[in-house]
Amino acid sequence: MSAPNKSYDPVEVEALQPEQVERMRDEALAAIAAAADLDALTHVKTAHAGGTSPLALANREIGALPPQAKAEAGKRVGQARGAVNQALAARQAELEAERDARVLVEEAVDVTLPYDRVPAGARHPLTTLSNRIEDIFVAMGYEVAEGPEVEAEWFNFDALNISVDNPVRSEQDTLFVAAADGSQDSGLVLRTHTSGVQIRSLLERELPVYVIAPGRVYRSDELDATHTPVFNQVELLAVDEGLTMADLKGTLDHMVVSLFGEGMTTRLRPNHFPFTEPSAEMDMLCYVCRGESVGNPDRPCRTCSSEGWIELGGCGMVNPKVLVACGVDPQKYSGFAFGFGIERMLMFRHNVEDMRDIVEGDVRFTLPFGMEI
Amino acid sequence: MRVPLSWLREYVELPAGTTGRDVQAKLISAGLEVETVEQLGAGLQGPLVVGEVLTIEELEGFKKPIRFCTVDVGKANGTGEPQEIVCGARNFAVGDKVVVILPGGVLPGDFRISARKTYGRVSHGMICSARELGMGEDHDGIVVLPPEHEAGTDAIALLELVDEVLDIAVTPDRGYCLSLRGVARETAIAYGLPLSDPALIDVPGPNPDGHPVRIDDPTGCDRFTARTVTGVNHEARSPIWLQRRLQKVGMRPISLAVDITNYVMFEVGQPLHAYDRSRLNGPITVRRAQPGEKLTTLDGAERVLDGEDLVIADDSGPIGLAGVMGGAHTEIADSGPDSGTSEIVIEAAHFAPVPIARTARRHKLASEASRRFERGTDPQATSAAAQRAVDLLVLLAGGTAEPGVTEVVLPYAPRTVAMAADHPDRVAGTTYGRETVVRRLQEIGCDVYGSDELIVTVPSWRPDLGAPNDLAEEVIRLQGYENLPSTLPRPRPGRGLTATQRLRRRVGRALAGAGYVEAPCYPFVSAADFDRLGLGADDPRRRLVLLANPLDDTEPGLRTTLLPGLLATLRRNHGRGAQDVALFETGLVFHPTDGATAPERLPVDRRPTDEEIEALKAALPEQPQHAAAVLSGARERDGWWGKGRPATWADAVEAGRTVAREAGVELIVRPAQYAPFHPGRCAAYTATAADGTQVPVGYAGELHPRVVAALGLPERTCAMEVDLDVIERVGGGRVTGPHVSTFPVATQDVALVVDAAVPAADVEAALRDGAGELLESLRLFDIFTGEQIGEGRKSLAYALRFRAPDRTLTAEDASAAREAAVAAAAARTGAVLRS
Questions:
Q1: How far apart are CA A184 and CA A179, in angstroms?
Q2: Tell me: the pLDDT tens digits for A58-87?
Q3: Is B467 on the interface with A (CB under 8 A)?
Q4: What's the pTM?
Q5: Are residues B292 and B402 in the same domain?
Q6: Same domain for B315 and B426?
Q7: What is the mean pLDDT of residues B132-141?
Q8: pLDDT single digits (tens) B622-636
Q9: Is B600 part of a structural domain of the chain?
Q10: Cβ-based contacts under 8 A for chains A and B
Q11: B19 and chain A: CB distance < 8 Å anywhere?
C-alpha cells in the first residue's frame, strides 16, 4: 500500500497513528461480535486478522519507521492484534458451543430401545455350581480328579467295601452294562457315585491325596419333582497322616461358609456307609433362617421346613478296608471323605421347586443363571 | 422300625412327662434316624366306651343295608338306658361288645360326634371302626371286642388309643434296633438309665426230648432252638394289649399263635416260626434246596427253589424258606376242616445274613424276618425268644409247654477286637480319655480289658463291630458328633485345574458367550434315534454300549453322539414356544471296546497289581468327551435396527471353530457327506497333529431335511459336534510371540473366478502358499455369481495385506507377491483373474 518510507518521519506513516490502530482494532472487534455463525466468523477472521487485514498491513509498516519509533508502534499494533485474536478465539468457542448444542440435540436417539439382536447364551447352573465348589477346594490345595462314567464294579463297589450282597448292587438301584449274553454280569456299571474316582486317585496318586471328584452319576430311579436318575455329585477325599473327624468337620464348615456366607456351620449325625467308619450324615445350618424358625410358628421357613438344618449328604472317615484295597497302610494313614448332590444344593440354594426344570434343558430355566453362579 | 413309647417304657423307666419328641432328640443324637413321632389318638375325646349290642333292627329301603341298634353303655350316658345308634356295618351280632362314642365325643381328625338324624332315625353316637379310632387302616367293619370287657368301660384306656410312636429308619449296621430290646438299649444309654432286657430270662437247659432238629448246612445256620407247646386253644384270640402293640408297630393281628411269634420278634428281634406239629413229618432239617425243588409259601405262591436257597425241610421235603417265609403246608390254623392247630413247634434259629439276603432277593420276598436276618440277629437270643413265645402260648392260649428242649448250637466264639485306648481320640481329633472310652464300650454291651491296648469283646447282638474304627464310632457317637471340634488340615500345595479341566470351562464360556445355552442331556439312546438321524446300517455310531436293565426298555443304549439328546431338547424348547434356540452340551459318549470281556473280580484285601488295574481299565468302553451345539430360528433377530438373519450352516461350522479356538487349534474345514447332515451343507473338521498328520475332529452343517422332518424339528436346524479330547490333544501348543512390524502395509485386492464346486478354502490355501512370507493377512470379502462370470462359476474377492518386517514395501514388491499368490491359485484350483 505504501511505498518504502524514505523520510523516516513517523508522522508520515498514517496507518501507525494511534487513532488509526485503535480504529482498526475496534472495527475488528465489532465485526467479530457481529458474526452470527461460524461461516461469518471465518470471513471476519480473514478480513480483520488475515494477512491482508488492515492491522497486518499496518504491522508491515513498522519496519519503515526509524528505530526510535519502532518499539512504540510495534507495541501498539501488537496489542491491537492480540485483542483481536483473543476476541476471535472467544467468539469461535462461543459459536462452536452453540452449534454443538444444536447439532447434538438433533442427533439424539432413544437409548432405551431394546437390543436383543443376538440371543443370549448361558451355562447350565449344574456346571457353574460344580465349578464354584471345585474352586473353593482348589483354593485350599485340593486337585480336581475325574473318571469314566461307565465304571468297573471293582472301582464303584468292591474297593469301597460294598459287598456283592449289598442291596445297592441290585438292578433296583444300579444300572448295569449288559454283558455279551445280555446279562448284568459284565462287571461294569454306570457309576452310582464318583467314589470310584477316589479309588483311582488313591491308586494313581502319591500320598498324601487331597482330591475333589465332581461328576455325573446314575441310579435306577424315576424322574419326578425331587429325583432324577442322572445327577451330579461332588465328592471329596483326603488321605494323609493324622487326619481326624474334626478335620472333616472343619472342611465342611469352610465349604458352607464359602458357599453361603459367614456364620454358616454344619452338623454331623451318625449314619452308616460301607466305605466310611465312622460315618455321618451332614446337615448345614439353614442359610435362610439360620435356625430361627425352629419352634417359632410365627416365622416359618420354607427352605428348611422350619427344621433349622438342611440335609447335605454323607461323610465319614475312610474305612480302613478301603485304604487296604488301595494299598495304603491304615496304620500310618487316615482319611476323610464326603459327597453330596449338586441338584439338591441347586434346589435349596436357588429355590428351584421341581427337579424336572433342572433336567429338561428349557432355556427359560437356564438363561437367568448366566455365566457364573 | 416303629416304636410305641408306651411299650418302650416297659424296658426303660423314662422320667414322667418324657415325650416322644424328647426321646427322638436323644436317639437322633445317638445316631438313630428317628424320622417321625406319630401322635396316636391326637384330639381324641370321650365319652368313648365299651358297649354291648342289645337289639338290632334292619332298616330297609336304603342304598345299603343299615342297622338301628340299641346298645348298653353302662352308666356312661348318665341314664343307664340303652343308647340308640344307627350303624352301617354288619360284622356284629346281638350280644357283641363294641366301641361306642357318645355325643360330645371327638374322634381323631376333629370328627365331632353329636346326636343327629340319619336314615330316618336319630343316632345318639356311633359304633366305631378301627380306622375311625386311629388303630389301623382296617375299615371292613366295626371293632368287636372280646366278651370279657364290661359295658361302660372307658375304651380310650382299654385300647391304649393315646400313644406316641417313633418311626426309626434303621441303617443296615444296626439290625439290633429292629427290636424294642435294641431301641430300649440305646434309649437307656442316652438317658443314663438301667435297661430291663426282655431277653434276660431263665430258660431250661437243652435235653434230647425236644422235636428233633438237624443242621446239614452249618455255614447257613449255626443255632436252632425248637420248643413244643401242646393243648393250644385254637379259638383263643389275642388279647387287646397284644393286638394293639402289633397294630402300633405296623403289623395286622392274624391269629393268637402268629401274633405271639410276631410280638416276640418285635420285642427281642429274633424272628420265630410256628409249625403245626401234626403236619411235620419227622425231624426238622436245615439244608440247601435241591435245584428245582418246589415249595408253596405262606403267601400261596409256589416257588421253584435254587440250589443256594437255605430251606427248612422235613421228611416230606422243604417246609419253609429259612429266615424268609414258612411253607403253607405246616402253617398253623385257627380253624378249618381238620379243626385248628393244637400242637405247635416253635423255631428260633440264627441264619447267616448272606444266604437269607440272596434268597429274599431271588424270590423277591422281603419279609420282617428276612429284614432282620439280613442285618444280623443275636445268636444268643434264640433260647430266650423261644421261651418268651412258649410263655405267651401257655398264658394266652392255655397251652402246656412240653419239657423237651432242642438246642442245636454250633461252636461259637465271641468276637474280640484289640484297640489302642486312644484310638477313638485319634479318629475324632479330640481327647475323651481311656475312662470314657471304656465306659462307653461297656454301655453298649462290650467286655473291656487292658490299659493302653484294650481287648474288647463285642456283644452277640452287634455283628457290625469288628474293627477298631467300629468301636471308635460307638464312642464318638455316644459322646456326641455335635461335640466334635472343627479343625482344618493343611494339604500340600495343589497344582490347580488341569489343562483339560480349564479347556472344558473355556469351551463352555465361549459357546455361552456366542449365544448358546448349555443343556446337559440324559445319555440314553435307541436304535430308532439313529434311524431318524438317517445313519447307515453299518454306521459305527450304531454300535452301542447296552444296559442290562435300562430305565426305559426303548432306550437301552448309551449315546455315541450328543446330537439325539440335544435335538430332543431343542424340539422340546421349540414345542414350548421358543423360536430362536441355540443349545450346547459337553459330555461323554460311549463306544464299546472291541473284544473286551468282563473283568476278573479283583481282591480287596490288597492293592491290585498294576497289570490287574490295567486289565480292569481295558474292559471299560472308550468314553471320549464331546462338545456339540444345535441351533434353529434366527441367529440375529429382526428389529428396529433392520433385518435379522436366520441361523445357518455357517453358524454351526463357526461353533466348531469357537470350540477349537479355545484350545489354540485351527480347524481345517472340508465339504463332506455325513449323516445326519444335508449332503450339500455339511462340513468335516480336521486338525493337524503335532506329527503333521490330519486327524478327524467332527462335523457341522445344516441337518438333512429328512432328519428335520423325522425329528419334528424347525426347518433348517443346524448342528455341530466335535471330539474335545482330540482337539485338546492336537492343540495347546505354546504361542510364539509375533514380531510386530511398524513398516507400512501394502494392500492389494484380487478377484478370482473358479468353478462353483471349488471350495473357497482351497483357493485361500493356494493364495496363502503362493503369496509367501510378505502376506500379513488375507480375507475373503465378497462372492459374486452371475452372467458376467459364467454359468457354474463364481468370483471370489480377496483383500490381501502385505508387510515386511524390515522395510517399506514397494509397489513392485506387493504386486509380485500378489501375482505369485494368483499363480498358485491358478495352478491348484484353476482360478483366473476376473477381468
A1: 6
A2: 888 887 788 777 888 888 888 888 999 999
A3: yes
A4: 0.86
A5: yes
A6: no
A7: 78
A8: 999 999 999 999 999
A9: no
A10: 292
A11: no
